[in-house]
Design brief:
The protein has 299 residues and is mainly beta. 3% of the residues lie in helices and 52% in strands.
């Protein structure tokens, strides 16, 4: 990616189903606001605003009769949840009138759960050992509505989360990667802690990719029992640098076009320089099975 002032923090994908190569990537720079990139790594726009430490995106949020990407993030200094509407044609982002999402003690991080017709579901990690789930939808009022749909106690405070197939994965400085069921039950706990998590399907198997923490880098975990399937290093390429200190990771199974990204894309933020690296999703499948190709990825 292009280097940007202050470096990149949390990353989220905004795919374009009709024109895959026109999909966008949104980053929350360390200095605050939002950066918008294209899939070639070019910085298209910086939107000023507070620093956000995590992002969840609904690519086709139904707002006032239109389908517009909605970006939700957490401002760590205040523990508040903020929303932005992304205008693809500019591209730029405008702060959205989001109803208050206020877990007890304030929010620590947010992650995407599901986009469905008419609403977005997210998980909000509290500063205390609790996660709440919320449904965001346009109810026609002055504010975009937000309704709490669940609240679960965690074994310890979490600072990163990811969701896949009704399962929520959380981790924190003192919390190893933990799988939470839709009913709020702890189903499995893995060995490492992590600074960043993403979840999805590789080779027909649910997996979690964990970055930083006690993983010491990147680790692919089995999404069911959270055992480590493979530790991964991203090394220097012919014209691109590797990743020295993986700090966060985000995966999308949506096509971003071209040969490399037609079956999805993974973004990793290197804590050494706070720049984003792109890796084809199928490359991670090959780390599990050397002969894997796009047709075997699943998801």
């Amino acid at each position: 990616m292009d280097a940007v002032a202050g470096g990149s923090g949390a990353v989220a994908f905004v795919p374009n189903a009709e024109t895959p190569w026109a999909g966008l990537i949104v980053s929350a720079p360390v200095d605050g606001g939002l950066d918008i990139f294209n899939v070639d790594g070019e910085a298209l726009e910086r939107v000023t605003g507070p620093r956000l430490n995590s992002l969840a995106v609904s690519p086709g949020f139904a707002l006032r009769g239109e389908s517009l990407p909605l970006i939700v993030g957490v401002e760590p200094s205040t523990g508040s949840v903020r929303g932005y509407v992304l205008v693809r044609s500019e591209p730029t982002a405008i702060e959205a009138p989001l109803a208050a999402i206020e877990p007890n003690g304030g929010a620590a991080a947010v992650c995407f759960i599901e986009e469905a017709p008419g609403h977005l579901d997210i998980a909000v990690l509290g500063r205390e050992a609790r996660v709440t789930t919320w449904r965001i939808r346009d109810t026609g009022g002055d504010l975009i509505g937000a309704e709490q749909t669940g609240s679960y106690t965690l074994p310890a405070p979490a600072r990163t989360c990811a969701s896949f197939q009704d399962e929520l994965y959380v981790a924190g400085p003192t919390l190893s990667v933990t799988r939470i069921s839709a009913a709020g039950t702890v189903e499995a706990r893995g060995g490492p802690s992590a600074e960043g998590l993403t979840a999805g399907m590789l080779l027909g198997r649910p997996v979690v990719i964990a970055a930083g923490g006690t993983t010491g880098g990147l680790a692919i975990l089995d999404g069911r029992d959270l055992t480590v399937l493979q530790n991964v290093r991203i090394v220097d390429g012919m014209s691109t640098p590797g990743v020295e200190q993986p700090a966060s990771v985000t995966m999308s199974a949506e096509s971003y076009g071209g040969t490399a990204y037609q079956s999805g894309i993974v973004a990793v933020v290197d804590g050494a320089d706070n720049r984003i690296r792109f890796i084809a999703r199928e490359t991670f499948a090959r780390a599990l099975a050397p002969n894997a190709g796009p047709d075997s990825l699943g998801g």
